[in-house]
Every structure is written in C-alpha cells, then in structure tokens.
Amino acid sequence: MSVGLRVRLVLLLLLPSVSTGNVLNLARSNFSDVVKDYNKDTFIKFYTPWCGHCKKLAPVWEKLSAVIGKDPRMKTQLKIAEVNADEHKDLGTHYGVTSYPTLILFPRMERRADAPSGVYGKYEGKRELGPLLDFVKTHVKPSKTRRIHAMDLLAHEFYLAAEPAPREE
C-alpha cells in the first residue's frame, strides 16, 4: 500500500466530518457568502460527528448533492451544504438548531422577501433521498434574474443585428 493511500485512509478514519462530492463545508468564514448568494438557494445540514442519526444521513446527503449536481435545472438553483455544529456552535445557535441533524433551506437573496426570517424553515420530513428531493423541488423555483438576464442577452443580440452597416466612402 502506498504512503499516499495510507495517509488518505487515516484521514478518512480520523476525520469523519470531511465531505466528498459536491457538499459544501461551511464555517464562520464562508457561511454568509454562501447563504447570501443572489442566484442560488442553500440547503444546509447542521450535524455533529458523534450523532448516530447524522452518520446515517451522511450518505443520503452526499447522494442528494450528487443528484442535484446532475440535474441541469437544479444545479443552477441550489447548493447543498453542511455545518459541523460542534465546531461552529454559534451558527447553529443563531438559527435555532437544538437537535441533530437539522436541515434548513435558506432562500437566495432574490427571494428573501418570500421568507422574511431569512429561512424557509426546517425540513421535518423523512431523512431519505426521495422525500428530500421532493422538498427541494417544491421550494426551489427558477430564478427571475436568470430569465431577465436571458432577455437582456436576446435584446442585445437584436440591437446588434439591427445596427446599420457601416457606410463605405
């Protein structure tokens, strides 16, 4: 067994909270930037490494992230993230997290008026892929900004096509 492979195996055993795939690891340093994205909602799992329910949810959360990443519509509208609430207790406390895992969907900035508290609420359903996908598909809507931006591009192309040709002298 190579040294690199042994190091990776040791890290995987010692650091069970390290994510793979498309799940974003959030901390105090990047939480606001990720959650205040103008174009994407963020579905966050607050967990602790010692929690049995959190350990059971971990592969489902990774699978959710993978499924979202493969969906052309959803991957442009949603981020899947997690916060180690043992390391970042203040983040959990700020959002009322009292048990683990707690799943919260944060709306993108464009839709904050729809959720004055800054969150749509906690997900209380089954911790299975199907119900989680149903939840995000119900709450995540197409971005109005993207449609407007597409119209701006179309208008710009129309404008360029309508310009008169330069005169030859």
From TrEMBL:
Keyword field contains Signal: yes
Leader sequence residues: 1-20
Domain (Thioredoxin): residue spans on this chain: 1-141
Gene Ontology terms, MF aspect: protein disulfide isomerase activity
Keywords carried by this UniProt record: Signal
One term under GO cellular component: endoplasmic reticulum
Superkingdom of origin organism: Eukaryota
Pfam families xref list: Thioredoxin
Keyword Signal attributed: yes
GO biological process, one term: protein folding
PROSITE patterns: THIOREDOXIN_1, THIOREDOXIN_2
Protein family (similarity comment): Belongs to the protein disulfide isomerase family.
Name of protein: Thioredoxin domain-containing protein
